[in-house]
Amino acid sequence: MKAEILTLLRERRDYVSGQELCERFGVSRTAVWKAIGQLKKEGYDIEAIRNKGYCLRPEEEVFGQHELESRMNTRWAGRPVLFHRELSSTNLQAKLDAENGAAQGTLLVADKQTAGRGRRGRTWSSPEGTNAYFTLILKPEFHVELASMITLVMGIAVADGIRETCQAQAYIKWPNDIVINGKKVCGMLAEMSVERDYIHYVVMGVGINVGLQEFPPEITNMATCLEAECGYKVSRATLIANVMSKFEAYYEIFRKEGSLKGLQERYNSLLINQGREVRVLAPKAEFQGVSRGINEAGELLVELEDGTVTEVYAGEVSVRGLYGYV
Question: Do residues 247 and 170 touch, judged by C-beta distance below 8 A?
Fold first, then answer.
């Protein structure tokens, strides 16, 4: 009920009577009073005036369970939200929860990670009170070979979620980095449990640099954060809710198509590699060419000097002008 009260007070932007809250939620005035008191203890500035009711004052973000729930505007993605002040890794906890029966759509969010991870075992700096760290649990019913495309679906959702939240021009560096002004602002890590041709679950982890922060010297020229790019405070809860809303819509298109066909145009419009020279560091070879976007399977199409086009499925891709590759 506390999340619903927050939503109503935020939307009304004026006083809401205790009687209306009682009738809306089917509870007593005492229950409303207790819920308001608990929200105040969490840090919300709620003014109470006799014969007028309750009013939520503009506040610094109170990042937590009820804030996230009150911002969520989806049918299943991000429902429920499981908020933790600190975790070793949202992906690790999500895998445990998935093994123990957590449903599709369960979203784990942490204010801090002590062992955040990126692709290929790389560490991901995860200080408290600064960034958005979250993992979505999925339990797909489609073929295993489609699972690798979920990261690309999330890439579109994150880029568009950022654009909606703070108007920053976020782009995708294939396959799953989000960049703004040529610098990385987000990383993703998908992990799954598979048995033969059956997917038990997929956990889709995302880490977005949000608040102003100092990056380690080795990445200071390659990393950025939303507040540095936008020039103002960005709500992490709003950002996460917007990403979930976008993901839910895009995932349904992907699931129905059984490919990225319905999302291919949008992905390519956000692809910073598009039409640019790329260096492909594949497991068995290294070559250069010009990116021509992705195909329906999420493979990067690279046009070589002789005009032939090769499909890149795995490997690192470097893009001219990004991350120090000139």
Answer: no
